[in-house]
Amino acid sequence: MNRLINWIKGLFNRTMDKLEDPEMMLEQAKRDMQVTLQSNQEKAVQAITQKNMLENLLNDQKRKSQTLETQATMALKQDKRDMATQLMREKMNVDASIANVQTSYDQAVATVEQIKIGIKRQQEEVRKKTAEAMVLKTQWKQAQIQNSITKALDGLTFENQFEGFGAVTDKIREKQSEASARQEMQNESLAGKMMQLEDSSRDMEAESELEKLEQRLGLKPAATTVDATQTVSVTDATVATGTPAAPGATQGEAEKALEDLEKRLNSGN
Questions:
Q1: b/e per residue, 113-128, with b = 16+ CB within 10 A?
Q2: pLDDT band at 230 (very low <50, low <70, confident <90, very high)
Q3: CA distance 261 to 9
Q4: 65, 91 Cβ separation under 8 angstroms
Q5: In this predicted model, what pLDDT tens digit does every residue of 105-151 receive, in sequence order?
Q6: Half-sphere exposure of 209 (CA within 13 A, CB side)
Q7: What are the structural domain ranges in the chain?
Q8: What is the C-alpha separation between 36 and 116, in angstroms, rounded?
Q9: 211 exposure class (CB count in 10 Å sphere: 0-12, 13-18, 19+)
Q10: How do residues 18-39 score in pLDDT, each as one tens digit?
Q11: CATH code of the region 2-149
């Protein structure tokens, strides 16, 4: 039951909204003006018709009066005085009727002229109001469009428009920082390896010097055999570079690696 009542209320409200719509109200007002104008024009036609009928009656009465006067004149010329008197009486009655008809006709003419003036004014007012209705309808449509634009602008959100760009920027910066960290860690790892190589070389040198000291002190017998290849390699590397060579790496390989590194640096620039 409540749903039915709500439905009826909603239907009534929609109907009232339509009835109160300015465009429909203007159309209804224009129709009312047209109906009123047509009704007044019809009344004007009836009034003009009555005026024309009075005019025809007045003309007939005038012709009849003129005819009676002519007949009375002919009777007098034929020495028929009694007939002439009767004709003149009849003419006098017609003339009295003409006076009444003339009064009614004059009133009808004045009324018709007023009606014509009123109709012209009403027609001009209808044209004016029709033009105003067109302007009002245009203004109403403009107001509806402006209202729609305002509603559309109200729904726009510019605050979050560039959030995606900010998120992407943050992500890129994060990846760049991570890449820098990894590069830093890689550099640290390479430096650590180089330090380990240097430590190993120094340990080997210290061990060799310690053995020589032990031999001089007689704590350890002198070595009877020495690997010539290893001695030459270490000596050559020491002479060529001034520092002990890394195990398993020759001077030619080091230079080649250095050249590759320079090429990579140049290509990166």
A1: eebeeebeebeeeeee
A2: very low
A3: 86
A4: yes
A5: 999 999 999 999 999 998 898 888 888 888 887 888 888 788 877 77
A6: 6
A7: 2-149, 184-220
A8: 15
A9: middle
A10: 545 777 887 888 888 889 889 8
A11: 1.10.287
